[in-house]
Please model this.
Amino acid sequence: MKKTGNKIRFLIGLMLLGIALAVFLTCNHQSEFTGNRIKNPDAYLLDAEKMNGTDQHTLDLQKGDVLQVSFQTVRGSMHMEIKAPDGTAIYSGNGKEATGFTINIPQIGTYTIQVEARHAKGTIHIQLP
Model:
């Protein structure tokens, strides 16, 4: 009888541990954003005090346009990718190496800006002059 009781306690403890782990993992990966975000037809301005999750914006651009980019990760991790209309990445980075630069637009179309952040603080400013 005592062995059966120990097995039941062990199984209950294991189940409670599994539930606690699931709750922790769910809470740890929730999207959150504190800061300012402006999405205009000619600009994407992100000032994140705290960001977990992803964000996206599109810009309709002309061949020969030049984007001015300022990207800085202060804390945590931020990854940004700018994709051309055909899906190829014309920029991919983390805001730690190159923080201010320009991008020459190679073709007309809709360009997608994708940002993924984990426990991040930083800024991304992309705009036409």
Q: What stands out?
A: Residues 2-28 form the longest helix (27 residues).
